[in-house]
Amino acid sequence: MRITIDNHTCIGAGQCALTAPGVFTQDDDGYGELLPGREDGAGDPMVREAARACPVQAITVADD
To answer: Which H or E run contains 5?
Structure first.
C-alpha cells in the first residue's frame, strides 16, 4: 500500500491522526503528514478508515 497526502487540499482537521495515530501526525501548522517510514501504512488496518474520515479527501491510499 502507498499513502499520500495532498498538502494543497488538507485543511488540518486532524481526523487522520486521530484515526490512525501510528501512521499519521500533524505538522507544526496542524496539517496532516505521514510519520517517517510509514508511507506504506505499516500494516495499520485503520489507514483506509483515516482516508475515509478526511473531510476533504486529501488522503490517497493505493495498493501496490
So the answer is: strand 2-5
Integer distance in angstroms from the first to the last C-alpha of the chain? Answer: 5
The tens digit of pLDDT for each residue in 24-45 reads 999 999 999 999 999 999 999 9
Please count the CA atoms within 13 angstroms of the CA of 8 that sit on its side-chain side. Answer: 0
Residues 6+ apart with CB under 8 A from 19: 46, 49, 50, 53
pTM assigned to the model: 0.92
Q: What whole-number distance in Å separates Cα of residue 14 and Cα of residue 24?
A: 9
Q: Is the dihedral of CA 39, 54, 45, 23 positive or negative?
A: positive
Beta-ladder partners of 32: 26
